[in-house]
């Protein structure tokens, strides 16, 4: 369990650091740079998650006396790491959007509304889209989405990572003779 918490925290911390770097470089508060910041997060976030899950699942494998890891145990470890990454990430996201950079969520909302407006929707649908953007771009909503998405994404990524890292117990390996 400690390994799951540790690697979940590391993934959330690395994701938060990426967000703060983007903030200090102006990608979270300058409308002209906002889309580029989104691209950086879209690429950087999964890379951080893959590396963290790989290292975490490997640490689970290496902590076992026989250094074995079944596919199921690997997937379970990835989901558990994802749960803790989601929990820590949700707390960090909420704090960032509430106290550090509340303007980020305003820009996020504006971008969402602009994207919907570019589709040329009727006024009633546009009004609904604006209300939805207001609801879904609050710090609490974004943190909630992170909380529930992280275990799902962690589980999906773990399906592949666990297959790579699985290892039979040494006692069941075929003899070299």
How does this model look, in words?
- With 177 residues, this protein is mainly α.
- It has one domain (2-101, 143-168).
- The chain contains 6 helices and no strands.
- The longest helix is centred in the N-terminal third of the chain and has 33 residues, at 31-63.
- The chain is elongated, with a radius of gyration of 20 Å.
The N- to C-terminal Cα distance equals 39 Å
Largest sheet: none
Taken together, the total number of domains comes to 1
Question: What is the SS-derived class?
Answer: mainly alpha
Indicate the mean pLDDT: 93
Count of helix runs: 6
Radius of gyration: 20 Å
| Spans of at least 5 consecutive residues with low confidence | none
Into which percent range does the helicity of residues fall? over 70%
How many β-strands, per DSSP? 0
Query: Could you give the order of the helices and strands?
Result: HHHHHH
Shape estimate = elongated
Strand content: under 5%
In short:
This protein has 177 residues and is mostly helical. The protein contains six helices and no strands.
Topology:
Layout: H1 2-24, H2 31-63, H3 71-100, H4 103-117, H5 123-136, H6 139-165
């Amino acid at each position: 369990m400690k390994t799951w918490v540790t690697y979940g925290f590391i993934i959330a911390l690395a994701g938060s650091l990426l967000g703060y770097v983007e903030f200090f470089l102006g990608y979270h508060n300058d409308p002209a740079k906002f889309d580029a910041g989104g691209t950086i997060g879209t690429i950087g976030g999964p890379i951080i998650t893959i590396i963290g899950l790989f290292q975490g699942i490997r640490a689970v494998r290496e902590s076992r006396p026989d250094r074995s890891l079944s596919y199921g145990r690997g997937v379970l470890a990835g989901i558990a790491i994802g749960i803790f990454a989601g929990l820590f990430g949700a707390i960090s996201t909420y704090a960032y959007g509430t106290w550090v950079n509340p303007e980020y969520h305003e820009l996020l909302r504006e971008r969402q509304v602009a994207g919907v407006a570019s589709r040329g929707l009727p006024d009633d649908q546009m009004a609904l889209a604006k209300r939805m953007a207001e609801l879904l771009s609050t710090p609490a909503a974004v943190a909630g989405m992170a909380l529930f998405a992280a275990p799902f994404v962690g589980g999906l990524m773990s399906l592949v990572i666990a297959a790579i890292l699985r290892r039979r117990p040494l006692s069941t390996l075929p003899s070299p003779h």
